[in-house]
Design goal:
It contains 19 helices and 19 strands. With about 550 residues, it is of the alpha/beta class. Helix 2 packs across helix 3, helix 14 crosses helix 15 and helix 18 packs across helix 19. The longest helix has 17 residues.
Length: about 550
């Protein structure tokens, strides 16, 4: 069992302090008074400078602030906490009248600027984020390499990145009793979980990360619905690796943005050699495989887990195409339901370049070349042709003899609707409620976002290709034969599935004994994928 008291992380070296609630409240009051919120920041910077800032390009915003004759309070907060700039003491006093310079120093948020006497710079990145709560919250994390040049520290605490936003948008959010944020980092997933879970456990291998999480929880206690004096009634912070801190417990929901990045291992390496926010210290995709195999053991019956992951895709064998599902399928037990969606696959060279840039390891050309080569040698040693990235959903069924969804593997590399979590939840609920024995009694309608395309060569009597497309959700495309297209065109809720199948069988299936079976199979697939919806009030 890991450390269970959040008090252990109130004062962690090199992390913001959270042992003075009155001072944290003063900071929150100053941030609110300065309108340090998303809408005001966009209005202050303008769309062009703000969009550049979201790409980690700081110059347009810095130029705008430097051009002001008198420093604005919002500009001071931006320059200090989001732009990595240096702020004179007079501007700090105007922007933070309640917490003051002494308070910001006590919280561990500032240090003296090394190049300008009387000026100060931030030790953390602090920015607004829209959680599932009614109000925006402020999230502290480590400064990135674009704000403070140099290779990231190995216990770097990542802020609100694209991966964390993707997981938040992907998560299905039922009301649950218990939830786990495994590898919490700065706490972003835990903040979202608090909106629909009575009790949340957040774990991390880094004490600094848990220090940031506790700071963020207490800074935003009002928006998150927390009582600072009774924090552990809702949230527990635990130090430890993977499932160790929660061994023997069960949760209704687990979310994780784990350190899944595949990194070449070196003889004699230590924990201090790892970038803990992304590297779990295991070879290849072993960490992801370990989690996929182990997560069902901490799920309550009916409980679910969602995570982001990388997986290795082996080189082609003869004429057979690459099968990205081979690894994920091998990790699955038969009594676990799963839904893997691969969003992209990149080559070993692309992968190496991405993660070397991520930690600013490209600044030293010799070290960059050595590490680049290590990546390529590592992938070659396992005959890896590409690396997949995607979303994973797992469920421990209440009854292992009934698995409506089963194990589903899809590749969807085009843009999808966001947030996708509500759509995924509806799809799973539909699959759970779909009974093959009563399928024939259903009355169906075509979903509002669905359109049909027919393609045929000039002069052809019949279309060569019939496509059904979704405009929402996962935006899938289904290739249909004439029979299934005819079925869909007749789905106005009037006739039952069995009546429509019978009519089409009489019309088209005279010489095909498997006609009805294939048509039922196609209808079942279209219902599960959201193309066809059950009409609740049958005529």
């Amino acid at each position: 069992m890991g450390v269970t008291s959040t008090e252990n992380f109130a004062h962690v070296p090199d992390a913001p302090r959270s042992d003075d609630q009155l001072l944290l409240q003063s900071l929150a009051n100053d941030l609110k008074r300065g309108q340090f919120i998303h809408e005001e920041i966009v209005g202050f910077l303008g769309e062009v400078a703000h969009e550049a800032l979201m790409r980690d390009q700081l110059i347009p915003a810095l130029r705008l602030i430097d051009a002001q004759t008198q420093p604005a309070v919002l500009g001071t907060m931006l320059e200090l906490f989001m732009l990595g700039g240096q702020v004179p003491e007079s501007a700090l006093a105007a922007a933070f009248p309640e917490s003051g310079l002494a308070g910001l120093l006590q919280l561990g948020l500032l240090e003296a600027a090394p190049e300008a006497t009387g000026s100060w710079r931030a030790l953390v990145d602090l920015r607004p984020h829209a959680s599932d709560a009614d109000a925006e919250i402020w999230v502290a994390s480590d400064l990135g390499a674009h704000q403070r040049p140099g290779v990231l520290r190995h216990d770097h605490v990542l802020g609100i990145g694209q991966a964390s936003l993707t997981l938040a948008q992907t998560t299905i959010r039922p009301e649950v009793e218990t939830a786990l944020d495994l590898g919490t980092g700065c706490g972003i997933q835990a903040f979202h979980l608090l909106s629909h879970a009575r009790r949340v456990v957040a774990t991390d291998i880094s004490a600094r990360a848990l220090g940031f999480t506790r700071f963020n929880l207490l800074l935003n206690h009002s928006a998150l619905g927390l009582d600072p004096a009774k924090l552990e009634d809702r949230v527990q912070l635990r130090l430890g690796s993977l499932l160790e801190p929660v061994a023997g417990e069960e949760f209704d929901l687990v979310v994780s943005n784990p350190p899944f990045v595949i990194t070449p291992r070196r003889v004699g390496e230590t924990e201090e050699d790892l970038f803990t926010y992304r590297d779990g210290g295991m070879p290849g995709d072993t960490l992801v495989a370990t989690l996929v195999r182990g997560l069902p053991s901490i799920l309550a019956p009916g409980g679910t887990a969602q995570m982001l992951a990388n997986w290795e895709i082996g080189d082609t064998e003869g004429e057979e195409p690459l099968d990205w599902t081979a690894g994920p399928r091998s990790w699955m037990s038969m009594d676990t339901e799963a839904w893997f969606i691969q969003r992209e696959a990149v080559s070993p060279t692309q992968y190496a370049e991405t993660w070397l840039r991520d930690a600013s390891q490209s600044r030293d050309q010799r070290a960059f070349a050595d590490q680049y080569g290590a990546y390529l040698d590592d992938f070659a040693s396992r005959n890896v042709a590409s690396i997949g990235f995607g979303m994973v959903w797992l469920r421990r069924p209440k009854d292992t003899s009934i698995q409506r969804l089963g194990q589903l593997f899809e590749e969807i590399t085009y843009p999808i609707e966001q947030p996708i979590g509500p759509y995924l939840g509806t799809a799973i609920e539909t699959a759970d409620g779909l009974n093959p024995e009563t399928l024939g009694e259903m009355h169906l309608l075509v979903a509002e976002d669905v359109t049909e395309e027919r393609h045929q060569r000039p002069g052809a009597e019949h279309p060569g290709v019939i496509l059904l497309r979704q405009g929402a959700g996962l935006r899938r495309t289904e290739i249909m034969d004439t029979a299934l297209a005819g079925f869909v065109s007749a789905c106005d809720g009037d006739l039952s599935v069995s009546a429509l199948v019978g009519a089409l069988d009489s019309l088209l299936g005279e010489d095909d004994p498997d006609f009805s079976g294939r048509l039922y199979e196609g209808v079942n697939r279209l219902i599960k994928r959201g193309f066809l919806l059950e009409m609740r009030n049958n005529r």
